[in-house]
Amino acid sequence: MKYENSSESEYWLGWFIDLALAAAIIAMVLALAGCAGTVTPHQVRDHGASFDGNARNSGFLGFDSDGRGIITPSARARYNSLAALYGKRLDPPVGFDDGLTPTGTNTFLIDAQHLVDFSTMNRWKRQGWEPPWTR
Fold first, then answer.
1. How far apart are CA 64 and CA 61, in angstroms?
2. pTM for this model (two decimals)
3. Pick from 33, 28, 41, 74: which is nearest to 55 by CA?
């Protein structure tokens, strides 16, 4: 089919440009829609070390010669409150004072397994995870 003011090659060129433009728009819509469902976890932010009295030590003092962690009484209280919230979610479950041994210097020893559990529960709390019974 011929048109009065245009040649057949101009007709096909216009048709090809329209087709390429439509394909580019479809590709752009698909690319943008593909990223719409991306889920990113809540970013954990440090708020600084906690204080025990006037000492800023976060409750963790170091390791003893057997590899157990040495924690302060406030860290013990934090561990027990986290165990009450999230202890059932761990395998094996963690309860009040599990893995803790008192010392004669007003500190507590925590074994390696429960130190990892303590760290995990603390991360869950900072990420805003719900305790298991609220699900």
1. 10
2. 0.60
3. 74
Domain that holds residue 62: 58-134
Whether residue 92 is preceded by a cis peptide bond, meaning omega within 30 degrees of 0, is: yes
**46 domain-assigned:** no
Query: Who contacts 57 (Cβ-Cβ below 8 Å, separation ≥6)?
Result: 49, 50, 51, 72
Same domain, 19 and 65: no
User: What is the total residue count of the chain?
Assistant: 135
pLDDT tens, per residue, the chain with 135 residues:
555 555 666 766 777 788 888 888 888 887 777 666 667 777 777 666 666 667 666 688 889 999 999 998 889 999 999 999 999 888 899 999 999 999 998 899 999 999 999 999 999 988 888 776 655
- Tell me if residue 71 falls in helix, strand or coil: strand
